[in-house]
Amino acid sequence: MPVRPPSEIRVYRYPLLRCPLGLRARLLLANGIAVEGCGFGAPGLRVGEVVFTTAMTGYPESLTDPSYRGQILVTTHPMVGNYGVPSRSRLYHGVLLDYESERIQVEGFVVAELPRPSHSASVASLHAWLAGEGVPGIYRVDTRFLVEEIREHGVVMGVLAVTPVNEEPPSWDELARRLASSPSYDELVLAEKTQPSAPVTHRPEGRVRARVSLLDCGVKYGILRRLLERGIEVTRVPCLRAKPEDLLDGYDAVVIGNGPGNPALLRGPARVAAEAAASGKPVLAICLGTQLLALGLGAETYKLPYGHRGVNKPVVEIDTGRCMVSTHNHGYAVRWDTVEATGLHPWFRQPDDGTLEGLRSSDGLVMATQFHPEAGPGPWDSTWIFDKFAKLAEEARSRTG
């Protein structure tokens, strides 16, 4: 990928920088912006697309969201880590309650300040958690400056290096060479790393209202929790190996889940999603799932300049004008002018920039949201979509016996 030559690298650092954790860090962006700060988490070097989130809370959920795989995450909130890290012993129907997957998914984490945790439910610090999972982080940097750069010029690839203070860090020239030799985020099939290795079934406690399959490119556990709490049994199918019959045979409805990366690289899963939509069974697509469904039905996707990432994003239901605050994590979207080819109708839009945020069929059996109705983290304004889907799935089950 193109990287600014070393002579054009501009380095920003706070004066008199002191790093109490014994680690220092360097972050270089492909556009030549470089920041030096203190390190936390694990020493090491990671390359990823640098993106930002406007969420003020919910960093355990964000860091474990598989949709962030392949990305270095910058948070706009100035202090992160103040309530520590929750226990992994809290489960809901066997699914982790406070996490969105089994591991940290981001390539690196960028925060302004890293306070000591103070919360009764905390079992570790953010630093200790990242260190235990081998993920580097950088703090005591001007994250507002970084976010302004991204908003002005768009997301960009970056390289993050964390080293002990008593060791020589990689030079900016070395980091530039590493960045130049690394593939772009848009070229990576990241679902290979976030899909399950084999089908996985999650069963609710009590009566099963319906059985649904889920095309899993890296599903958030919040989606599983919302389905399980409504009495839905869920079988997750690895998205890159799935065939239409894997999702349709023996199931009452289908979920096309979220995940990381460029949807245009996932033509196979897109065709499977289209087959599901044509089956006559209820279908719910979320985030990447919406893009795959649209691609499979003949629409086109494009990359947003800096994406939508946060828990405070408005969406408007087009027919009613009702506005909801929702959770977002996407860098791609469906082109408005190609929707007609799908046979679906626009359902939601984003009022800030007009992005298409939802699609649905005339009969209501196919629903797709670009935002995340399950929250995790985020507001609960749109969880009614799961109520609607669960009712459709239960009705489909009653018809087939």
Note the total helix count.
Answer: 10
Helix/sheet category: alpha/beta
DSSP strand count: 22
- Assigned CATH superfamily of the largest domain: Class I glutamine amidotransferase (GATase) domain
Q: Specify the overall morphology.
A: globular
* Rg result: 21 Å
Account of the 3D structure:
It is a single chain. By secondary structure, this protein is an alpha/beta fold. The protein folds into two domains: 6-185, Glucose Oxidase, domain 1 (3-Layer(bba) Sandwich), CATH 3.50.30; 191-400, Class I glutamine amidotransferase (GATase) domain (Rossmann fold, 3-Layer(aba) Sandwich). It contains ten helices and 22 strands. It has helices at residues 59-63, 126-132, 143-153, 172-180, 191-194, 221-228, 244-248, 267-277, 288-296, 384-400, and strands spanning 10-13, 23-29, 33-41, 44-53, 71-75, 85-86, 91-92, 95-96, 108-110, 122-124, 136-139, 156-164, 200-202, 210-216, 232-238, 253-256, 283-286, 301-317, 323-334, 345-349, 356-360, 366-369. The chain has a ten-stranded mixed β-sheet with strand order 13-15-14-16-17-22-21-20-18-19, sandwiched between helices. The protein has a seven-stranded mixed beta barrel with strand order 2-3-11-9-5-4-12. It is globular, with a radius of gyration of 21 Å. It starts with 9 loop residues before the first strand and ends with a helix. The mean pLDDT is 96.
